[in-house]
Amino acid sequence: MKLELESSLARMRTQLASYCQEKSISDAIVVGIHTGGVWVAEQIMSAVPTKEPLATLDITFYRDDFTRAGLNPKVNQTSLPAIEDRHVILVDDVLMSGRTIRAAMNEIFDFGRPASISLAILYDLGQHELPIAADIVGENLTLNPEQRVKLIGPQPLAVSVIETD
Amino acid sequence: MMRSEPRALQLNDDGQLKHFLTLDGLDKTILTEILDRADSFLTMGEQSVKKVPLLRGRTVVNLFFENSTRTRTTFELAAKRLSADVINLNIETSATSKGESLLDTLQNLEAMQSDMFVVRHSDSGAAHFIAEHCTPNVAIINAGDGRHAHPTQAMLDMLTIRRHKGQFTGLKVAIVGDILHSRVARSQLQALTTLGVEEVRLVGPKTLVPSFFAEMGAQICHDLEAGIQDVDVVIMLRLQKERMKGALLPSESEFYRLYGLTEESLSWAKPDAIVMHPGPINRGVEISSEVADGERSVILNQVTNGIAVRMAVMSMAMSGQLQQVDTAQAGEGEA
To answer: How far is B172 from chain A (nearest CA, A)?
Structure first.
């Protein structure tokens, strides 16, 4: 399966711009989830009317599979400005079960109470296990159970569908 | 009964930490992982809610057979910042003072479905003993045992050094004072050697710095000026006043004159050398107030770093312990 990364990113930018206009969102905080989400956020940031630099989030300490999968050995920097009453646009590369987004929202609320959180996703795999859906989607994908999307970046950003064991 | 080799007892089948008893046998990779993890926890101070949910629903028992307000408090705070429930067991009023054995106490705590014991004991090897005898799903953290080890203190010192100096390679470090009785010095020496510092000097009178420490890879110095000449880090140790009555030292004032860290003696170290002390400080006995409160002192940074290091160790040990149990249960299922 060949993925058209550029057209998916362009679709996200278009959706984001009109979404922010419709919702009267200005000066939002764009938050990329490490690692792929940060790369995607860098690509679509220009579509958001904001002066805030890109914020980043690592959800390692908020994962719900800590007792099964253990701790991720590499924890990236979470860097969020004051988010109280601010609009947050959360960005990730893939939405599968929704557990990463749940963990990200838990972490965001530990920094304060945002006015709203919107979700922008490059690829929605449609395998949600939680009642979480994206507001902006680059592309909806249907993959076989053994297939995964792999994003490589940040420069150049590339994507492929890989087969797992 | 044969004692388990420390590395085998501390690590699970995947080489992950499941107890933290000593730095003996732990390699650079795992020490660096502890420091990296602690760095991540340090940034948590920026959050409105200074907590993460890693140990939510877990019970941590601070099992202190020996008093230490600072260590107990930082372990308690670390566990609470990981969202664990914490019990502080006051040994003075506990069953052990009524004659109950350590093993009986341990079994009772296990029956209360505790997940982690943080053990402080005046006997060397106490934490190791408990780790050997506790049920498989309980992680043991050594918070100081006799003269043997104080691994979390050593790791918080390593974190402090790394944050101020960037790396360990090429550093010269002096540890000054009562080395003989210091579990902190033993663990620091192991950590510094493993992490690859250029030189570790143990500085103090012959009665407190015996020559056998040279076998552990340290240089022995009985002269303060030679000992801290051109070092990057000076670690002062507490001189325990109770030992002053013995024959090891003539007097506090004599020790201060020969080995106390003052503005004058600190000038022998590198101009950017940092000063550390595990606390509590005896001002005017091993260090002057000017130095302890001075620009080069990082003593309070050590306290802050201590919480992050303890969070790192507790989360890693719990993770390693739970995965070990999962693996064992999976094995049983297959049989």
So the answer is: 29
This complex has an ipTM of 0.81
Average pLDDT over residues B212-232: 94
| B129-160 pLDDT tens trace | 999 998 888 999 999 998 889 999 999 999 99
H/E element holding B79?
helix B69-81
| Binding-face residues of B in 48-87 toward A, CB within 8 A | 48-49, 51-54
Examine the pLDDT at A94 and tell me if it is beyond 70: yes
d(CA B136, CA B321): 8
Provide the 8-state DSSP code for B101: -
Q: Order of strands, edge to edge, in the sheet holding B59-64?
A: B85-90, B59-64, B116-121, B139-145
| Phi/psi at B261 (5° precision) | -90, 115
Establish if A150 touches chain B: CB-CB under 8 angstroms. Answer: no
Q: Tell whether A99 is within 8 A of chain B (Cβ).
A: no
Give the CA count within 13 Å in the CB-facing half-sphere of A17.
8
| H helix or E strand, kind and range, residue A147 | strand A147-152
Strands of A116-124's sheet in order across: A55-57, A29-33, A87-95, A116-124, A136-140
A75 to chain B: closest CA residue: B40
A42: buried, middle or exposed (CB in 10 Å: 19+, 13-18, 0-12)? middle
Mean pLDDT value across chain B: 88
For residue B130 the two structure tokens come to 């408990």
Burial label for B35, CB within 10 Å (0-12, 13-18, 19+), is: buried
Using CB atoms, pick whichever of B36, B47, B319 lies closest to residue A111. Answer: B47
What span, in angstroms and rounded, lies between the C-alpha atoms of B258 and A57?
Answer: 52
Nearest CA in chain B to A103: B53
Q: How far apart are CA B60 and CA B89, in angstroms?
A: 10
> B36 vs A74: CB contact, 8 Å cut-off?
yes
Confidence of residue B197 (pLDDT cuts 50, 70, 90): very high
Phi, psi torsion values for B174, nearest 5 degrees: -110, 130
Nearest to B319 among A70, A74, A77 (CB): A70
Query: For residue range B99-131, what is the model confidence (pLDDT) as tens digits?
Result: 677 788 888 888 889 999 999 998 889 999 999
